[in-house]
Amino acid sequence: MKENSGFNAGIRLAALFVAAAIVVLVAFRLDALHATAHNGATAVSGPMEDQLFFRELVESGLISPAVSSEGNSTAYLSQILEVAPADSVYEIKLQLNAESDSIIRETLVRQELLVNKLYRSKVGLAVRKAVRFWNKAHYFAAVRDDRPVTNHTLLNQWEARDPMHTNLRLKQAVSAPEYCAFVTNGTMKPGFGDWLRAFTDGGDMQFYTRIKLDKPATVTVQLVGSLVSAHPAPSAVTKRKIQGRSFDGLKASEKYPGCSLTLCLPAGEHDLRIVTRPVEFRRNVMPGHNIAWVDGRKWPESVKWIDCSQHSWRKPLVFAMYTSDGTELLKADGQATEAAWDLGLAALTGANVNDRETLAWILSSAPQAGSVTLTFDAALQKIALRNLEKQIQELWGDNKYSNQRRGAVVMLDADTGEILAAASYPRLKAGVHPWDLRAFATHYPAQSWRTFRPWQGVDSHNAPGSTFKPVVAMAAIEAVQSNAPNADQIEHFLKGYAGSKINKTGLTLDCAAYDPFNRRCYNSRNIPGSKLVVPNFGRRPLGHFFKPEDKTLGLKQAIRDSINVWFVRLGWLMDGEKARAYDAAIVQLRHGQEKPSRPAFHLGGFAKKLGFNARAVDLLANLKDKVHLKRTAPKENTEGDSMFAATGKLNLLNEKESGLQRILTQNSFGQGVTATPLQMARVAATIATGKLTNPFLVASLDGDNLELPDSIDVALDSDGMKLLKAGMKAVPETGTADKAFKNYPDQKFIYGKTGTANVAEKNKSFWSTWFVGWREPVKDGDHRIAFACLVTHATGKRHRTGGSVAAPVIAGIFKEMTH
Length: 819
Hints:
- By secondary structure, this protein is an alpha+beta fold.
- 31% of the residues lie in helices and 20% in strands.
- The strands form ten sheets. Strands 3, 6, 7, 9, 11, 12, 13 and 15 form an eight-stranded antiparallel sheet that branches. Strands 5-4-8-14-10 form a five-stranded antiparallel sheet, with no helix packed on it. It has a five-stranded antiparallel sheet with strand order 21-20-35-34-33, sandwiched between helices.
- The chain is elongated, with a radius of gyration of 34 Å.
- The protein starts with a helix and ends with a helix.
């Protein structure tokens, strides 16, 4: 027995030597194959080698689309890629043995070499991983829910299983692409957990979870995939489809590739089972993927390899961040403090240091950590936010425009540009999943709670309405000062005409609407339904605006009572003939002739001086020389990081716009214009001080005070500016905001202008409402505070004007400050 045992041991030892020899030979053969596959070329490594090998596999037919296009079509039905299996090498060998054609044999030999390299080399592994990563990103299903948080609730308790084999768990990931935001239908809600994304090679999959409830609750389940069945049966299923400009280029294999399920569940334990069919999403380029698709090309040119090698990662730095009165906004671990959430500043400063485009994220790119003190006054910030939210909730609560309604308040030092408070509605609330913040910032910026309304998120609802009229007035004052054509007539128009002489202005006492094209007035009984005709608010005639103390009707009265026809007439006195001549020249233009040069409008030129149609304002400009920061600059269709403040635009400065008479008419009373609340607060500060300030947000770095950004002198005739200021002082006293400031003891220190813009689409009825201005110092040591308030989607006869919606917000703030 001992001899047999020794003999057996010897055999085993010999077998080990043979196996080792085989391994060495295989390794040697693979190296040879590798060299042969590249035709003896010098070896390359890294991304370039991956790219070359991927191209070889595609061109050799070893990587191909799962569903080919028909005929010569380039519209491939699928972007899923198939890779030749490892055992295809045996099929190739069989073909080699049966093939006599030398050219075909050469092709098959090459394919054999490539397949071996695909499954027996590092570069092959890299390509297979990239293809698998690409397919998983395109073909999957995902689920999440907003179950109440209890002691037994985890971030994600879902599992994905094969419904045919319920014990078989599928491959899954706690993630979903941000383009799945379509399933939210543009409504951001707090309380949702992580996504569970699952993959399958085909067929249905089952999502399973157990929910434990201490009391009855309504649970919403969001599903990416095609719903097959659900148990228990939901009380409502809302299908979701991909729609919206931000989803351009994204297509799904199903018309409704997602849905939202509402489950009304009693207290106790509930087993939820949702059977769904995965959906393929077509996306040509995806961040982090080496593979990209090119539409409009035939295979194999329709797919390519791109280098997306990751840069070295470093732990983000955390800056200590405080308000001017010492309130901490960012914890040492990079999370927003409770105070930051309560003050409504987490959207700006960052929910955490990894919250992209926020101040914490920007500062984390600095060479070393430090501390910053912001210009915000925490007490004033809290008052501003409370009054904004209170007004919106008390006026409308939850109505059909609640998800679209937005609001903002900005308060800044009119002399220095320090931003003292900036409230945004709806504010970012704790409990919103980081995925929603990222996805909404890309696909639903208008609905994103992270969009900071005081200076970003500009769209048609930012039309300033009558708060733009002071800009028109200042342009007219400058036109007089520069001795422009009609200067004498404009100057007299600004000072005002008595009622008996009002006809000299081109208007009449019974003028309730004005047609500047035909220079015709209409009384309140015969206003035509023409877009060329501009009515006064409420169709009131000019005579209505003469008050007992008024001897004339001029700039003061037109600002106080916001008289549309007066400002349209003023705009045309400045620039009407230029607009008329240009439009006539365009009409007479013949084919092949060059367009005439666009005229230099007084209104457009002065608005540009104030920052309209200009670059966004960098609120960290005073940090540039102190520390190098990584920034996301604004581009044509993006606003950049949260420290870039958009200004505004008016159509008169848009070279692509035509019909300048129509545009001049609209711009003259604040239509066809957009502006942020911060920009309108800058306008108010300019009127108050004679200087255009550059607002800023960081007061000190590591305890050292930063220099104030430069301001720009806006030197205008003092007599004209006195009229403008007198009109704005009259607004809260006897004008369009008198009710809001009726019981405010320091009313005499307030200068303001209300604004109401009709921005509703057809068959909808809502307005954007504004109040802008400034408060002079009430006592020694007070700031001269410039302010702006915007509330959109104002509805109802009593609550649709700047005087009834926005002005009470500002009045409430100053009343609290006084007490």
